[in-house]
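Onboarding guide, step 5: your first structure request.
Type a short instruction followed by the sequence, for example:

Predict the 3D structure of this protein.
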Amino acid sequence: MPRVKWINGLRGAAAAVVAFNHYFNGEITTPFRTYWTEPLKDNQQLIQLPPINFLWSMDAMVPLFYVISGYSTASGLLELRDKQSELFIDRVRSSAIRRFIRLVLPLIGLGVFCQITFFCGLFIRSLPEDSAPGLEPWSSPWSHLGYLTRYVADSLQLFQIQYNHGLSQQFWTIPLDLRGSFVVYLVIILQAPWRPRVRLSLLALLLAHTLWYGIWDMFSILSGLALAEISALYNRTGYQPRFLRGTISYVIRFAIAAYLGSLSSKTSYPPDFRVLELAQPWRWSRYDWTNARQNWHSIAVVCLFSILMQSPRLQGILTMRPFQYLGRLSFAIYLVHVPIYQIIRAPLRDYLWRLQENREWPGPWEASQSLSSFYSCWVASGIVSYLTVFIAAWSYMQYVSPHVDRISRDTDKWLNQTETEALAEGKKGF
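The system replies with structure tokens like these:
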């Protein structure tokens, strides 16, 4: 069973969870709290218990994407390093260039789209107050252009991440992914001549360092690289580290993934997770609660990924056609779903509410007092929104993605020209 297929399915499942959650996030809060969150009378519902609450584990999907990214980026390069070392460095260089272009071009394109949409006043009601300070629709185009320029510049600042969320709240993950990918390339090159167990030892030290300092994104991506190294070593020699062997290890990792993956509180450790506050490194206290939660989620998804690596049955589920289809659309779903929600969610929901209640949408808490109208307008508008997201994602993959891939290939080819070829081409142009 090809390894890439189950990873593609896992990526698709994670993208579906994120798209599903972002539609309700900020409006419906109960699923995003744990079963024992206080006050208890507002919680302790079935949807807050595992495994159902995994449907709401949006925050855990980001580190999962980074583990997948680190693993996928490294796997092909490690295989080439071990079998065709003469092509290894050139492939690393090519991979780095193409990855940069494939991530940055869509980020810039969607940034321009969101700015134009905001300028036209199509999703101003869906934005947090601090998203575009001082900007108003249909006014001062130069101010909008300046804001867009600063957003793109901040998004390309990989040495000191700016966390400029811009007008679409999910693109902050791309600079982190790019930075982590370049670290993966660097580590792979440095470790290329080393013995396998020395490589794993250094990676273990890097993982301990990033986790101790709470750098959860780097921990996740480097974990993907470490798991790829373990997989490559196992395929070559049959060797497997001791901590991955046996049923007890499998059960422990599954328990850790299930427990930490259920940590979904938005404010602080809920009662059923307060033991983690005692266990966290003191360095984490320098950051806010979100960072601590993401570190625990990173540990959870690393355990989950290691389980999937060793489970042909679970891999078989992820190779089923629905997961594979979602996997093919996963990056496009990630790109388009939030802008689409910002444009159509509120107007469609408010329109359906007015049809049923003959009054304006009063806000999520007051609206929830009329349960039938509340849920029917959310479900109906959600179905329309999800269909729109999938149509837009399919259109992106059909009509936009091939051009981005072509640009990345052509740029890589142009940068890789020899001096003689470049001079000859320059003379022809002259």
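Each response can be followed by summary notes, for example: Residues 3-421 form one domain.
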